[in-house]
Amino acid sequence: MTRHMHVRHHRPARWGLLGFLLLVGLPVSSSPAYAQEGALVPDASLPIPKLHFDGAGALAIEASATSSEHDFDFLVGNWKLRNRKLKSRLTHSNEWIGFESRVEMHQILNGLGNIDKYTETSTGAPYEGVALRLFDVRTKLWSIYWADSNSGKLDPPVVGSFENKVGHFFARDTYKGQSIVVVFRWDVRNPQLPIWSQAFSTDDGKTWEWNSINVSERVR
């Protein structure tokens, strides 16, 4: 949801949530907020699907059998987000920054698309982003476009679909001159606390560095 300017280190080993929280300095608590704090760690039990490429080296993406124009219906409305992002990407950094933001999402095109406005002021200055999601009725794939107030232009779309309430969306791109594949993950196994995360790969998906994650809570 935040891509390059604002915005998935290699995947953590399967050492359990408690150990990871202690390692990265997140609070360990039995309070209701613990569920949200725990969600701010990429889930190592969810594999990123293996990438496939065509003869020209372009990503070859096929929709899941259950892909639907209703996959993002859960996101309609107003949300507050708890965010964490790497301070520096693709530099083996382990320094994370936490902040809060807001999202307001509306459906468009009779449900074949949706658009949300993202706002936050963690740097002291207003920052706005827009996510545009479109469902292709022929391919059954979602394309997610991002633009923000730093650049005023659309990033190349990430493309993909949901399977078992987890969506993966991919694109080829560049980051500071380096060729990458970017993935957005939407984990909506709990639609009341949906989790979005982002990773970059510099080796066509052999390894991934998670660099941004947030968990949303609906504003009533």
Report on this structure:
The protein has 220 residues and is mainly beta. It is 8% helix and 41% strand. The chain has three helices and ten strands; from the N terminus they run αααββββββββββ. The radius of gyration is 17 Å and the shape is globular. The two termini are 22 Å apart. Mean pLDDT is 86; it is low at 5-36.
Task: Tag the structure with descriptive keywords.
ten-stranded antiparallel beta barrel, 220 residues, 3 helices, mainly beta
The overall pLDDT average reads: 86
Instruction: Compute the number of helices.
Output: 3
Globally, the shape reads globular
Task: Let me know the largest β-sheet.
Answer: 10 strands, antiparallel, barrel
Major beta sheet, strand line-up: 1-2-3-4-5-6-7-8-9-10
Structural class: mainly beta
Write the layout of secondary structure elements.
Blueprint: H1 3-6, H2 17-24, H3 34-39, E1 77-86, E2 96-108, E3 113-120, E4 127-135, E5 142-148, E6 158-163, E7 166-175, E8 178-187, E9 195-201, E10 209-218
Antiparallel strand pairs: 1-2, 1-10, 2-3, 3-4, 4-5, 5-6, 6-7, 7-8, 8-9, 9-10
